[in-house]
Model the fold of this input.
Amino acid sequence: MSTLAKRTWKLQEFVGHGSAVTCAALGQKSGRVMATGGEDGKVNMWHIGSPNCIMTLSPLTSAVEAVHFNPSEEFVCAGSRSGALRIWNLAEAKVIRQLSGHKAAVRSVDFHSYGEFVTSGSDDHKVRMWDIRRKGCIFTYKGHVDRVNAVQFSPDGRWIGSVSDDKTCKLWDITAGKMLHELKDHNSAVNCITFHPRELLLATGSSDRTTRIYDVEQFKLVSCSPLEGNGIQKAMFSESGEHIYTASQDMFKSYSYDPICQHLDTVIVKWGKPADVTISMEKLMGCSFFQNIVSVH
Done:
């Protein structure tokens, strides 16, 4: 899938919660399930294409600010405004872990690709890694000086990448518990991070309206997208890894990036601010929310 299909359509639109929706995530494995979090502290589960909630997980004590599936879609983790995390086994609809340590809202969570670990980024400027089996935080990574907007484990599971309102992307060695490198080429808050599926590359998207691609073997900037009309909210590499997709206000874009970043395609999607994107059955899919309404395109 080298370019974006010119045809877009709204798969569904529905009332997600009784109060405002605060976050949403798509299952990256199947592209057929979605989780939403709300001001009501609830996490609701949905099948893509159906407007009926299939499960409501036991509510947290404050609004849900981040939600994410593990790679197999067997578990979901939610981070709350109070700084607490909760992990559920979806087959049993049961809480398996409650984790506390952050002193402010959790903005992003991610599961390790094969280990029983979770990472989280918070408004308290800290990144934490949690051992699900031991029920506790095993590392706290300090270095950001503003809120952490997104965290992600590298595909090999050795690193955590984090991006922040402090305009930086930091890479952390998860076993040494220390920062490997800091990337600081953006001119505004960095909103998202994504690792290349096979190569030592990562991409970051920023409110400065650019997406930047880095070689993380040499820790150097290799490509930068042209200025877009709005800040980049989500970015992801194509399944082949040859292209990168960006999602911003009402817009999807596709770029090649080797040897330079070249625009390939643009699709206007009237969805407001994107919450998550994935590739399912060779199609790009994204979800967004406004007030208590959730949309899937």
